[in-house]
Amino acid sequence: MSHTTPYQPLVDFFREKIFHYQREGLRIFASSSFQTHSIPMLHILSEIDNSIPVYFLNTGYHFSETITYKNEVAEQLGIQVIDISSPVPKINQRDKQGNLYFTTDPDYCCYLNKTLPMEPVLAQYDVWISGVRKDQSETRKAMDYEQPGKHGAMRFHPMLDWTNKLIFQYIKDHKLPRHPLEDAGYLSIGCEPCTMKMATLLENDRSGRWFGLNKSECGLHTDLIQNK
What we know:
Layout: H1 8-23, E1 28-31, H2 39-49, E2 54-57, H3 64-77, E3 81-84, H4 101-104, H5 106-122, E4 127-129, H6 138-141, E5 146-148, E6 154-156, H7 164-173
Parallel strand pairs: 1-2, 1-4, 2-3, 4-6
Antiparallel strand pairs: 5-6
């Protein structure tokens, strides 16, 4: 791809940082939610080094389309995807009244199914590649390219300055597949019970997540990071 593309300097930066980490002998992994906007990061990573593992938090609440898409992308890009799940069985993820936590305490549900299973992974690695972007939320707007995380693992955010326009130009240029639910009006796709179809763009492309609640993050990018 020619260096005339507007995203090429960001791709080069990504590549140079990975090579730097590897020269330092650091253990690297990535995580992905396997949404459409995740694919450029995964494609770039596959071209740099497709042996770097990509962890997927399989909460048990994902749309079936997400699981299918994840498998298709993994095969197409030749990347190693590792599913991880909560150590707490679903039957034990209930409040005193017997209601599943996603109905009464979504923060705790996210902790059990996302933050908790990610913690032992962090203890195995030195660098965590995450695809967060500044334009996704106020929380993410304040992030840096590199930030300390828990258990001594540094977070690297190579997509931080990418925009929706750059994301979709990259997808078009490289003929990459999109999440099948995107055409159905889903702008940001997480767990099925906490994801709402959005016909119009509201504050940002994550506005359909936990709609109506004072919540915009699952904890991965708040509890497992040291803020400035």
